[in-house]
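> tool_call: predict_assembly(chains=two)
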Amino acid sequence: MTHKVVPLVEALRRHVPDGASVALGTALECLIPFAAAHELIRQGRRDLTLVGPISDICFEQLIAAGCVRKIVAAWVGNVQHGAAYAFRRALEHGIPRPLEIEDHSNFSIALALEAAAQGVPYLPTRSLLGTDILARNPRLRTASCPFTGVPLVLVPALAPDVAILHVQRADADGNCHAWGPTGISAAAGKASRAVIVVAEELVEPGVIRSDPNRTLVPGFLVTAVVHLPGGAHPSPVQGHYNRDHAVYADWHARSATPDGAVGWLDEWVRGLGDHAGYLAKLGGERFDRLRPHAPQLAAPVDYGY
Amino acid sequence: MSRGYTSAELMVAAAAREIRDGEVVFVGMRLPLLAFCLARSTHAPRAVGLFENGVVRDSPALAFLVTMSDGPNVTGAIWCTEMREVMGLMQSGRVTLGFIGGAQIDRFGNLNTTYVGAPGRMVRLPGSGGAPDIAALARRHVVIMAHERRRFVERVDYVTSPGHGTGGDWRERTGLLGGGPSAVITTLGLFRFDHTTREMVLASVHPGTTVEEIRAQTGWLVRIAGDLAETPPPTREELSMIRRFDPEGFWTGARR
């Protein structure tokens, strides 16, 4: 099954065509597949629909690069600074391209993917009642519970074309372990027609099988496996590296103008050939400063029988 | 700064005091991250914090946090899971208190973080995140925000996170489970809500602020509580804890 293991460039060329709907940044502020987003920018992808809860500056950068036609999300911007310069320019002024938004809450995005993951047309919730998110999103409907009569919001299933999931480790078949909070990553993986797993470590199958409760998605759902250490930088990956706050501050300062955003993308994405070039520009010393201060190993669990 | 603490430090202390010991708290971004750490380290050692990314912890974070997904909020957690689990627990009534922020608020505590301005000249804001879910589903919630006239408006341009709607029994009629906003902590004062009309009532004024200033910064005629008080400033113990969790003043402002 080693044919699933491919370079990032190849995985995105094959599985993320122009116009695709892509779930990414599904663990909220950690495990964001920034290297994949940057490669989509380098490859000049167009008309993507991005699906995610809050995407941090990953969505901002894809929007600023002109890769995006539509966003299906709860929040778009820079978590550290609050601003969403690229998102605003695209929505309000069509810069660099017009953008469509389908507003959700975090829970309704989770439920939309969960419904697709479970193969049901919708899931009900008691959130969003009385909001303009409900009033202005024609895909969300209200209904009375057939059992109790209470008002419900029905969130229709959403099945993205592809999910890009960053994880700590995967085997060659895509069986993968992620730890720390995972947000809506498992639902996104199960809901999507294709799954690209980007892993810090490529491990022997026995490593995954030694702790099957930690599996995020099983390999039979995974289309491609990319081995890419540092592929989530500047977002944190528990046990591997901490969040590089300086990158978010730099994007905040420079993305305030269209030229500034393009300048950042030229310097950190388009001007560098690939992720190896990005890590080289970042420098090993800077990366080493992001490493955990000390290991925090979990107690072993006994799967014996 | 002449008082020895910043406005944000006072807001964090006020927010922490809203957390009762043993409560299950849905912790939001920014100042509530610090308020939970402070409460857990002082008067509420048995409080449990749920984060929308799936972290559940019964101890303060181990170091400074910019986001809830930063490493020090994960190490030592009692549960790291999926969003649907923590949101589901909130929907089933297990969360007694949630915190949210906003860009615009009205007299009934409805919050807007999506669009501001008139049609045709709308300014887009980042959006909702988990705030509407907290506002709908937590048994009660507390709002933390800057107090400016452009933010405190008669009617919000867009309801992102529902407060008490049009007042009275609006939440019950709408089918909302949670009790709605119980307090609004601003840069100038602290508001609670009238039990019948559900309108915001000024309960305390922060030291150095006047009722006149609050009136001037509010876009409707503010109701004042009969027992209007001064917001207690942060104690020395509270300040030292806040500064332990935000040593550089990233969230709570420069301290000289």
